[in-house]
Design brief:
Shape: globular
Helix content: 10-25%
Number of strands: 25
Distance between the termini: 58 Å
């Protein structure tokens, strides 16, 4: 049995809470759901990998938008439903998986649910975003998964799972019911209904572990299904460059933007005009009309604002320098502080505000950058945006340096 966290919803018909469990026996699997008071009653009773007698649940057709179990029906728990532990020694069952390889994701449609077994090659740090739908702050984390097809895909974890996931030791992950997204190529998202198993004792997991141990130092030619648009970038197997190669190779001058990774230090950060008051819904800059604020895009007045960060900084490495722009998520990662805290310090403690920007100077980071020629006031100029940043230098940078040394020795 696997169990989701309790999650809440709010719509025009009211509010509520629910959780799901995927139940397995020797005949197959089925999903069961509990809502509101029944959710509160049954959630603490049901434990993963325990065996139960369950009765008085009602059957209904499976909702394929959220349910990918191999069953045409699902169970709805009610106030009359009973759950009793079974103390008899019975075997534990895993659900039936329908694994596909990462390279096959290219043939899947948006919102398809898939089963994947892969190694977590690297991961970004958790970051906070504000949901446009609910205006609530959410925590997300990008994992970079690889498998025997020599392909890489980004996978997003959310909430408590994003904060607590342990990436040490490059764990093997089994995802059942991960949702496919067509945003920035192909990527995966782990929802509340997705089953996540870490280092499970199944043949497929052992096989991908063996493959990874034999190939982990030869992944520079990995096929990447996830490009890196506005989200945090792949910090593991990307196109490594030194800063002077940006001009030497004319990056950003093509029709499509160029993405590359580099390791550099921050030599300067502009703190002037780095903050603005934004609409919590659309993130556009607000017009102050005391006692409220006006959002021209949403065409309405809003009582509160959200601080948004946009900083310009200079990166340096042995080869040269480069101005880049960091927006909200990447700016918060780089500075190690939230936009809300920086906004508070700007008006209440100038010393702490200044210290945030001086503390980052001359520290080394791994950056994922996007270069694109843009037009501003009828003038073309190269714009370089940061789409990913990490204070931890990933293992593939070492691989890149080793490869550079080997090429020098051969020349």
């Amino acid at each position: 049995m696997t169990k989701s966290n309790i999650r809440t919803w709010s719509n025009s018909r009211g509010e509520g809470r629910l959780f799901n469990v995927d139940l397995v026996d020797d005949s197959g699997e089925i999903r069961a759901s509990a809502f509101n008071e029944t959710c509160d009653r049954l959630y603490p009773l049901l434990e993963v990998e325990k065996v139960y007698y369950i009765s008085k649940g009602s059957l209904r057709p499976a909702n394929r938008q959220f349910n990918n179990t191999k069953n045409d029906y699902e169970i709805n728990f009610s106030n009359e439903s009973t759950v009793e532990p079974c103390d008899d020694a019975l075997p534990s069952y895993l659900p039936k998986f329908d694994f596909i390889s990462i390279d096959q994701l290219a043939n899947k449609k948006n919102n398809d649910l898939v089963d994947i077994v892969a190694v977590c090659h690297s991961a970004d740090q958790p970051s906070k975003i504000v949901s446009r739908a609910s205006s609530r702050e959410m925590v997300k984390r990008e994992l970079h998964l690889v498998d025997k097809s020599s392909s890489l895909v980004n996978c997003t974890l959310w909430g408590q799972q994003a904060e607590e996931f342990d990436v040490s030791g490059n764990p093997v992950l089994v995802l059942k019911g991960a949702r496919v997204s067509e945003f920035n190529g192909r990527s995966l998202s782990v929802s509340a209904s997705t089953m996540v198993l870490t280092n499970p004792d199944i043949p497929e997991a052992h096989q991908v572990r063996g493959w990874y141990q034999n190939n982990m130092h030869n992944l520079s030619s990995m096929s990447q299904l996830s490009t890196q648009g506005g989200r945090a970038g792949d910090m593991g197997t990307s196109n490594w460059k030194y800063l002077d190669q940006l001009q030497k190779e004319n990056l950003g001058l093509r029709d499509k933007p160029d993405y590359f990774s580099c390791v550099a230090r921050v030599s300067n950060v502009r703190k002037e005009n780095c903050l603005y008051k934004a609409c919590p819904e659309c993130n556009k800059k607000l017009v102050e009309q005391p006692p409220t604020f006006r959002c021209e895009k949403c065409a309405r007045d809003v009582p509160q604002f959200a601080w948004r960060l946009m900083i310009r900084c200079i990166l340096v490495d042995f080869s040269g320098i480069q101005w880049i722009t960091c927006f909200q998520d990447t700016a918060e990662k780089l500075l190690g502080t939230s936009a809300d805290e920086i906004g508070d310090y700007q008006t209440t403690d100038v010393t702490k505000f200044d210290k945030i920007f001086t503390d980052v100077l001359f520290k080394q980071f791994e950056f994922r950058l996007r270069a694109k020629m843009e037009t501003y006031n009828d003038e073309n100029r190269l714009s370089v945006h940061c789409v990913g940043v990490s204070p931890t230098i990933g293992p593939t940078y070492d691989e890149y340096l080793i490869k550079q040394i080997e090429e020098l020795e051969m020349s």
